[in-house]
Write a structure and sequence with these properties.
Elements (H helix, E strand, L loop, with lengths): L5 E5 L6 E5 L4 E5 L2 H7 L4 E6 L4 E5 L4 E4 L6 E5 L5 E6 L4 E4 L15 E2 L12 E2 L2
Antiparallel strand pairs: 1-2, 2-5, 3-4, 4-9, 6-7, 7-8, 8-9, 10-11
Bound molecules: zinc ion (2 copies).
């Protein structure tokens, strides 16, 4: 990592690579119905960036997109189907999914369970963010 906070990201297969620079405007977990249905997951870990902070460094022609509403343009890799980002034109922000840029220190302020909670027979141990 260079001193000006650049983080590399890639899709599931690596055909699409990207770079984000600086700090995200926000990050957290989205539980909205659209994110749940599109990601087939209970939550979507998002990091929001100004468009100028996001560059597709490889495979831009491999990105396909779909807009269910005008608020979100969801993009994924045509080769592997891996989700990459959602462009939010109205907010002038791009959500680069946190899992796509694993080196970015993701912080949401929530407890991180090492394994199952103690009520479920696990250690109940928490991990640092
Ligand atoms: Zn891919
Ligand atoms: Zn959402």
């Amino acid at each position: 990592m260079s001193s000006d906070n650049q983080y590399q990201g890639r899709c599931f297969c690596g055909a699409v690579e990207l770079r984000v620079t600086g700090q995200p405007a926000a990050m957290g977990y989205c539980h909205c119905e659209s994110c749940q249905q599109w990601s087939a997951s209970p939550v979507n870990a998002f990091t929001l960036w100004a468009p100028s902070a996001v560059s597709i460094t490889r495979g831009a022609d491999q990105l396909a997109s779909f807009s269910k509403t005008e608020r979100s343009v969801r993009k994924w890799c045509k080769q592997c189907g891996g989700h990459v980002m959602t462009v939010h034109p109205g907010w002038d922000l791009i959500d680069v999914y946190a899992a796509v840029i694993p080196d970015l220190p993701f912080k949401d302020g929530l407890p991180k369970q090492h394994d199952f909670p103690s009520e479920m027979g696990g250690s109940g141990a928490l991990m640092p963010e």
